[in-house]
Amino acid sequence: MPLASTRRTGLVDQVISQLRAQIDSGEWGVGDRIPTESELSDQLEVGRNTVREAVRALAHAGLLEIRQGAGTFVRASSELGGALRRRLERSRLRENLEVRRALEVEAARLAALRHSDEDMADIDRAMALREAAWRDRDMSAFVEADFTFHRSVVNATHNTLLIDLYDDIAQVVYASIAHTAYEQNDGATNQPSSETDGVDHSKLTEAIRSADPAAAAREATCYIDELLSLTED
């Protein structure tokens, strides 16, 4: 919506509100690159300096991330999420895993109670990709598939607040998966660490499929506790 008719006073705030609305509506999802400064200037019919100030304000709030040479990306879906993500990024791996346990154990329980056939298909698809990547010893594909699996379980809860919270810490979850899945001193080999061979999600998948919330919560607790056992205090 053009903003040319808006009086100059508070114009930056108007642009901030417009950009925030794009994020709130889901049109720009977490991880998406937003239009360029020039494109936004044309769309909103305001000067590029105004757009630049608005983008910087949202970056400061934690909603956007400006990457030199790559563009500007959505970092969180809310100011709370941005603040939470910044805090998690300063935390230790053990603390991140403990936060994951708090969210993922409840997500597993709710997914067992509420999943649809479509949700189950998404979980199965992610499991298949995860297993194939493991067989191929493809590091990047394994981490991506493992994250997709956990995200699919969270989606199956149909709890929008839980889903939003998980989205807000997605970058930290992804980083913790990569960190615990592979030996830190062997990154150049692109090979999964043998220490993660025992982290199996098949029982969790079957507990969700069987609509067994207690078993699903137990399996989610087990895999997080296993990962915690591999980390230093």
From TrEMBL:
Q: Name one Pfam family in it.
A: GntR
Q: Which domain of life is it from?
A: Bacteria
**Which keywords does this Swiss-Prot/TrEMBL entry list?**
DNA-binding, Transcription, Transcription regulation
Q: Which Gene3D superfamilies match?
A: GntR ligand-binding domain-like, Winged helix-like DNA-binding domain superfamily/Winged helix DNA-binding domain
Every copy of the HTH gntR-type domain together lies at: 9-77
Asked if the record carries the keyword DNA-binding, the reply is: yes
Coiled coil: which residue ranges?
Answer: none
Cited InterPro entries: GntR_C (IPR011711), TF_FadR/GntR_C (IPR008920), Tscrpt_reg_HTH_GntR (IPR000524), WH-like_DNA-bd_sf (IPR036388), WH_DNA-bd_sf (IPR036390)
Cell membrane in keyword set: no
Q: Supply the SUPFAM superfamilies for this chain.
A: GntR ligand-binding domain-like, Winged helix' DNA-binding domain
This protein is called what?
FadR/GntR family transcriptional regulator
Please tell me the species this chain comes from: Nocardiopsis tropica
